[in-house]
Specification:
2 helices
Length: 62
């Protein structure tokens, strides 16, 4: 992979991690409905980042 590819992948993963961190900051156990909504949003974000990582080329796949 080129330096540009690595930088782009890092940027994409960083943006997705930022989304997850922002959701985590909103988690509050005092409002169960909002907590459920935030957790559902986090599940989607986690699935997105997982699919990004699974789609990355691995050295042993060359």
């Amino acid at each position: 992979m080129t330096h540009f590819n690595n930088a782009r992948i890092n940027e994409m993963l960083g943006l997705q991690l930022g989304i997850i961190k922002n959701i985590a900051l909103k988690l509050d156990g005092n409002d169960i409905e909002q907590l459920e909504s935030n957790l559902a949003e986090m599940e989607v974000a986690m699935k997105d980042i997982k699919s990004m990582v699974e789609g990355l080329p691995h050295p042993h796949q060359a």
